[in-house]
Amino acid sequence: MLPSTTSTPWKKSLHHCAWLALMILLQLLITLFLNDSLHPLFLHWESAAAACKHGRIYVYDLPPILNKDLLHNYHAVSNGGLGPPATGLDAAVPLSLSAAWYWTDMYAAEVIYHDRINSYRCTTSNPAQAAAFYIPFYAGLAVRNYLFSNSTAKDRDRHAAAMLNWVKNQPAWRNSNGSDHFLMLGRLTWAFRRLTDNDTEWGSSLLYMPLMKNVLRLTVERFRWDSLEFSVPYPTAFHPRSESDIRQWQAWIRASQRSSLFTFVGATRERIRNDFRSILMEYCKKETSSCRVVDCSETHCSDGAPAILEAFLGSDFCLQPKGDGLTRRSMYDCMLAGSIPVYFWRGSFEYQYEWHLPKNASEYSIFIDNDIVRNDTSIIKRTLDKYSKEEVMRMRGRIIEFLPKFLYSKPNANLGGIEDAFDIAMDGVLKRFEQQTRLMDASKENKEH
After folding, report:
1. Which candidate, 238, 149, 162, places its Cα nearest to that of 199?
2. What strand order describes the sheet that includes 366-367?
3. Local structure of 270: helix, strand or coil
4. Which of 55, 104, 268, 438 lies 20 to 30 A from 410 at CA?
5. How would DSSP label each residue in 276-309?
6. pLDDT tens, per residue, the chain with 449 residues
7. Where in the chain is the domain with CATH 3.40.50.2000?
8. In what order do the strands lie in the sheet with 216-219?
9. Burial environment of residue 124 by CB neighbours within 10 A (0 to 12, 13 to 18, 19 or more)
10. What are residue 218's phi and psi, to 5 degrees?
11. How far apart are alpha carbons 79 and 118 in whole angstroms?
């Protein structure tokens, strides 16, 4: 028979030592806490938990062919999507802010979001702890090389199909059928809504692929009838490094001397019948006392070029016709300079950017229906002349107030308590999934009762 160990003296001694050590450790922790030695650490834990109260995001590590490989030899999306450092802005930007400006491509957001999320505070490496799953697929870059060539529909769908084939086999996807997954589309939604397999039809059919039916999408212009789509701001050229950068730029545009009533930056599109841009261009070139023109058929205009910034900084209002869709990157370049956008289509602001811009567009913009302008272009100046200096200052002040919400800061920037466009988008995604989970739980509970 084996001897009993419960009464062995050395075992009792060991138990007493363990209890004594535990009591000493507990007293030490209490003493340190009362002396504030551990208090900052506890505050850090509480702060981190509060910052991520809506949940955390798991980032898939996709095969490189679906993202990183698409960056090869594409300088426009270097530096984590920000593009090459900007030059030639000495006359428009304070010297202390010049390092925060880049020639950022209007369709670079999918790269910017991927780069930013890698340092985002609310991510997790444990899928079991995630409330949302981010698919870092560069859908816009994948289709870009095929949009303006003699490609087939199959060519334009190849990367999208490969992405879905990969992600459908992931455990988290199988658990939810993709309903807690999201991705960022760098191009307008229309580039991913091809309806047929006809090779002559535009774009990819990504958004109509069956496996995408539950996936939430962020895009620079959304389809208003799609409840799973949310628009986020186009990237501009300014990427602040700190709260100080933002405050300095806000003061700069508030103090800017504006000699023109309004400006138009753009190029005519002769292939489009009754091109509205041509109407604006012709009108502005005649209305030289009030309108400042930057004709992009004669001047370099891409990615926030100096001529664009200087024109917007020197004008109270900026004319914003439709772009490739109902919206355009120029509306953000305009507001970045403290100029007040003038829209001609309601779709340019209604049902767009609801997380980032004020719900009441009249607080920061003017609307003149394009049909009225086609009949009488002089309505533009007559309408803008009606606004008093105080009203213009108030609208500009509103833009300056919400300006940080449409900026994309540099990775690891210290913005203090300010949330930029990326932070707001991630918060919106997590809140959406949190609400979705709550509704599903309530529905399940009702069925059980």
Report:
1. 149
2. 291-295, 260-266, 315-320, 340-343, 366-367
3. coil
4. 55
5. HHHHHHHHHHH-TTTEEEEETTTS--TTS-HHHH
6. 444 444 455 445 545 655 666 666 666 655 544 455 444 434 444 455 677 999 999 999 999 999 999 999 899 999 999 999 999 999 999 999 999 999 999 999 999 999 999 999 999 999 999 999 999 999 999 999 898 888 999 999 999 999 999 999 999 999 999 999 999 999 999 999 999 999 999 999 999 999 999 999 999 999 999 999 999 999 999 999 999 999 999 999 999 999 999 999 998 887 777 899 999 999 999 999 999 999 988 888 877 789 999 999 999 999 999 988 999 999 999 999 999 999 999 999 999 999 999 999 999 999 999 999 999 999 999 999 999 999 999 999 999 999 999 999 999 999 999 999 999 999 999 999 999 988 877 766 677 66
7. 253-405
8. 57-59, 132-134, 181-185, 216-219, 229-231
9. middle
10. -105, 140
11. 14
- For 33, 119, 131, 238, 423, the CA distances from 417, given in Å and listed in that order, are 27, 17, 24, 19, 11
Cβ–Cβ < 8 Å for 151, 191: no
Which candidate, 101, 368, 146, places its Cα nearest to that of 236? 101
Cβ neighbours of residue 411 under 8 Å, at least 6 residues apart? 80, 115, 116, 118, 119
Contact 133, 180 (CB under 8 A): yes
Judge if pTM exceeds 0.90.
no
Handedness of CA 107, 110, 113, 114 (dihedral sign): negative
Distance CA 79, CA 338 (A): 27
Closest CA to 224 of 326, 334, 328: 326
- What is the C-alpha separation between 373 and 390, in angstroms, rounded? 26
Query: Which CATH architecture is the domain 253-405 placed in?
Result: 3-Layer(aba) Sandwich (3.40)
Only one residue has tokens 């004594």, namely 20
d(CA 200, CA 323): 22
Cα-Cα-Cα-Cα dihedral of 207, 213, 218, 221, to 10°? 50
Chain centroid offset of residue 129 CA? 24
